[in-house]
Enoyl-CoA hydratase (Streptomyces dysideae), 244 residues
Amino acid sequence: MTLIDRTRARAVETLTLDSPHNRNALSAPLVAELADALTDCAKNTDVRAIVLTHTGNTFCAGADLREPPPPAALVGLLRQIVELPKPVLARVTGHARAGGLGLLAACDMSAASPRATFAFTEVRIGVAPAVISLPLLPRTDPRALARYYLTGETFDATEATRIGLLTTTADDVDEALTPLLDGLRRASPQGLAETKALLTARVLETFDRDAADLTALSARLFSSAPAREGMTAFLERRDPAWVV
């Protein structure tokens, strides 16, 4: 079963998350398949830029709790997007949760419709947004992250744009992306690669400095008793024991 659909038009490769059974959650197979697709795009001289989008009403529901990827694999995917010598743009017309927001932060640009909603839900299942902080902390408003990391509350696309998680929000996402993609098509591959390297240098410094510690933190938290209670409660559609 293919979890990533691929199409190409005028040098732009579109990678579509297509895992409806789990709302495009980051399962181990999906992470591996997306990483392979990005590797192919990086090597292909006919690809100028990549659009990452989704089927259904959810961009990405976060980590798949039934078949989660190893933390190191998720770190590798996020770093791959940041390091890719070609721009990666997110096209979001549905909801994004937890690890899905890490994907958005790793992308170079992103556009979402007003129908999209966002939430860092990790704290509500007994873990923390550890590895996704690698691209998020250097790129997103720290006071806003404090609020949304700690409360797990949902926010809309306008707020996501204000805090730096998105580039823009628009009723017609494709119309919003058109001038961005046209600009990329007019840019030289060398110019894009070198300019992206300038823009991502500080993000990659965060990966170099913190990836090992945050990977270990994620693994420790997900194997803890509170996380088992939180994930079980989520799957059983009930409140975990600590809710008061």
